[in-house]
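2024-03-11 09:14:02 INFO worker-7 job=invfold-0412 stage=load source=structure_tokens
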């Protein structure tokens, strides 16, 4: 967000507050920041009259009227006493004043168009001239805990959308509409891909046979790419003793996010694993390794468990149980660069196949929060420089962001960009010198001495479960041929065509395609509509001509065109499409 837009949005939050006070004088204002798509203001209506969605239009009208008088901001620094008088009876503002005072910072009041608020500043100077009244809109009302803490009272949050131009606002609203249509929770249900059950628990998806076709296709593709890079696939258990995580450091840094397990026979503290890395160190360390064997690479698709807050679980976006296409590379210092470049290449290849755009976030540690990270400064500096160099060399778009590193090392995070331009962090590459130290991982070098090795963590598309959620929305449910749960529907026009239709169906199925046949007595129009609703990539219509000439007429979901093929030519076409 540009500074200018940030100022506009924050100013609009004040303008909203002013409009609210006109209509609801009893309201207590709290905080009103700018956000990614506009602004909000959290307001306590103190048990009095509270606006609903129907009142947004009125409040918005109020804003547009008030803005004419909002010609210029003025501000003054005041003492805590004066500020407390100004906001007497408003416990939220009083709390903020106490905090500012305790920090020894100055307390400022900002005024515009006769409206005064406690604020640090950051407004557009002349709101009436700088804000386009058709580029903002009040959006919705929601509940929010004061300062995001569920122990605090609930206040009313009024959201507004704001952009630099009316066109940008319209484009945003269009994207939201489109996102609603593509909502993976809705489409996955319509297509019967997965199920959540209250009895199983929130955040733990169960894939139906149809959905699991997609899931397996995604995993198999990652497997295929792993194989190319020389990975051996391992299989590891879900439950682990706490000792493992104490050694890895997860116990201290990550315990609150792990689900614990108890046994009736042993007293060991145990957890469902939130990641595979610590276990892979144990496979590596189960025997001595010569430098000649390195790099050693393990892939693992085990299910992982994280104790996410139930309120934050939503569809496939955030889960308690999910797999990852997780791999670990155990290598020597001198091999790190080459391994990373290979890994980046494969991620590029994978995302191209899925047709998903991306950029890379170089996630660095936050020097102001040094205690959150394990390992010494030298190791951090070296890892961070190394990633910076490699990502520059790889020639992929990237941005550096401090504070996004893992507690044991910096990361390259792959941020996917979907068809609606939304960004999703999917996969991660990490160079780790901390775990090898903690687990004392070595190889025997040329001199016959023990040499400390490096561990690289990497996922390609991250979690298949979560990635499919992204893909459903990216494709709007129209999966490409290689991923589609059902690839082709065979539709005989009338009963007389069933025999040949069954022949075609059997031939396609024998050649490894996922085929459906509709021999019901429904009309052809109805059969085609059903196939279209199911979003199958292709359907084949079989009537007199096809039976006679031993051909098929193939209709495409994506182009809407139809073409006549012999069965052999059809197989060649579909096979070619499946593998590209
Ligand atoms: Zn302000
Ligand atoms: Zn790992």
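2024-03-11 09:14:09 INFO worker-7 stage=emit residues=580
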């Amino acid at each position: 967000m540009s500074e200018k837009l940030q100022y506009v949005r924050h100013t609009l939050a004040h303008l909203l507050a002013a409009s609210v006070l006109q209509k609801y004088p009893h309201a207590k204002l709290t905080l009103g920041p700018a956000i990614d798509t506009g602004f909000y203001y959290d307001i306590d209506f103190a048990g009095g009259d509270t606006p609903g969605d129907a009142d947004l239009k009125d409040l918005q009208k109020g804003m547009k009227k008030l803005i004419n008088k909002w010609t210029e901001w003025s501000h003054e620094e005041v003492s805590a006493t004066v500020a407390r008088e100004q906001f007497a009876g408003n416990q939220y503002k009083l709390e903020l004043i106490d905090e500012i005072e305790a920090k020894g910072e100055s307390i400022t009041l900002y005024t515009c168009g006769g409206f005064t608020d406690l604020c640090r500043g950051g407004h557009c100077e002349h709101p009436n001239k700088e804000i386009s009244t058709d580029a903002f809109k009040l959006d919705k009302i929601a509940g929010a805990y004061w300062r995001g803490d569920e122990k605090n009272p609930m206040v009313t949050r009024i959201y507004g959308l704001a952009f630099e131009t009316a066109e940008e606002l319209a484009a945003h609203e269009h994207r939201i509409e489109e996102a609603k249509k593509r909502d993976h929770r809705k489409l996955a249900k319509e297509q019967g891909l997965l199920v959540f059950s209250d009895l199983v628990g929130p955040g733990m998806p169960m894939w139906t046979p149809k959905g699991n076709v997609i899931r397996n296709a995604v995993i198999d593709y990652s497997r295929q790419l792993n194989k190319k890079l020389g990975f051996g696939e391992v299989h590891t258990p879900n439950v682990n003793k706490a000792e493992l995580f104490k050694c890895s450091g997860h116990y201290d840094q990550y315990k609150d996010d792990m689900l614990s397990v108890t046994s009736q026979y042993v007293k060991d503290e145990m957890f469902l694993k939130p990641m595979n890395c610590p276990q892979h160190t144990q496979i590596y360390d189960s025997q001595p390794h010569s430098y000649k064997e390195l790099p050693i690479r393990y892939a693992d698709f085990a299910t992982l468990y994280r104790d996410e807050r139930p309120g934050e679980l939503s569809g496939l976006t955030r889960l308690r149980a999910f797999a990852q296409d997780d791999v670990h590379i155990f290598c020597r210092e001198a091999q790190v660069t080459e391994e990373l470049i290979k890994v980046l290449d494969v991620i590029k290849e994978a995302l191209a196949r899925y047709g998903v755009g991306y950029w890379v976030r170089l996630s660095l540690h936050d020097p102001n929060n040094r205690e959150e990270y394990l390992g010494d400064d030298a190791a951090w500096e070296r890892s961070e420089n190394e990633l910076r160099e490699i990502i520059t060399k790889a020639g992929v778009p990237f941005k550096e962001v401090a504070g996004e590193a893992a507690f044991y090392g910096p990361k390259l995070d792959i941020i996917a960009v979907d068809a609606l331009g939304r960004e999703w962090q999917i996969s991660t590459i990490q160079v780790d010198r901390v775990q090898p130290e903690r687990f004392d991982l070595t190889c025997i070098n040329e001199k016959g001495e023990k040499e400390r090795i490096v561990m690289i963590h990497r996922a390609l598309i991250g979690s298949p479960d979560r990635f499919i959620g992204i893909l459903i929305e990216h494709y709007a449910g129209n999966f490409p041929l290689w991923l589609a749960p059902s690839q082709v529907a065979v539709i005989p026009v009338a009963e007389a065509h069933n025999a040949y239709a069954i022949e075609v169906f059997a031939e396609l199925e024998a050649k490894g395609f996922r085929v459906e046949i509709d021999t019901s007595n429904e009309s052809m129009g109805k059969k085609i509509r059903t196939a279209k609703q199911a979003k199958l990539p292709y359907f084949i219509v079989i009537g007199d001509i096809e039976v006679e000439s031993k051909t098929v007429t193939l209709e495409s979901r994506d182009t809407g065109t139809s073409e006549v093929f012999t069965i052999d030519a059809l197989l060649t076409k579909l096979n070619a499409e499946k593998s590209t």
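2024-03-11 09:14:09 INFO worker-7 stage=report msg="The first strand starts at residue 28 and ends at 29."
2024-03-11 09:14:10 INFO worker-7 job finished
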